[in-house]
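Reading a protein record of the kind used here takes little practice once its layout is understood. The fold follows as a row of integers, each naming the local backbone shape at the matching residue. With these conventions in mind, the following record can be read line by line:

_____
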Amino acid sequence: MNLKRLSIFLLLIFRIGSVNSQEFEKEINEALKAEPRLIANLDSRNAFISSSGVRVLGFKVGLLYDDILAFGLGYNQLSSTYRNTIIYQGEEARVKLAYWYLSPYLEYTFYRDNKWELSIPVQIGVGESYYKLVDKQDRTIYNKLVVSYEPAISFQYRVLNYFGIGMGVGYRLMIIPNRELEERFTSPVYMLKFKVYFEDLYDRILDL
């Protein structure tokens, strides 16, 4: 399955109120014929690990087609300090949780005007989670591959034609969890976003 077909398949799952899939597929195909623009996003994802609130910071770079469909890649990392006490090698050990992942993503914008846009971002997270032993110079243990799936819905407001700020809600589902850890990572997600429209900003600088 090529990238175009995969994007259409994933977005059809979350398409709300679509009259028919053929019209939607035609819209995506037409968007992919347009010249893409470079975009970048900073986002802060507030979620829960077990019952504790945590924050994951992320940075994404991608291509935007016809102001409708975006593809890209991001890096995300747990920024909150999360501590626990576990039994390790028969003794109590103080640990800090670490979690990072790369995130291929796509985002479909289903409403847009001069300032506002509503979109459906979907990302796959592929990374690692583990503990750092606090009393042993942060030596790591239980390092395991983890894979997550995060669909969401978000809105964004465009500021000064070059930047956008927004919010969103979604859900993080762990497809491949780290079963060595005690914590549960599947959780609702609340997002804050900051977006840069590089092409528009570049054109403005050239006009100065």
About this structure: The helical segments are 3-14, 21-32, 198-207. The chain has a mean pLDDT of 85. DSSP finds three helices and nine strands in the chain. The radius of gyration is 20 Å.
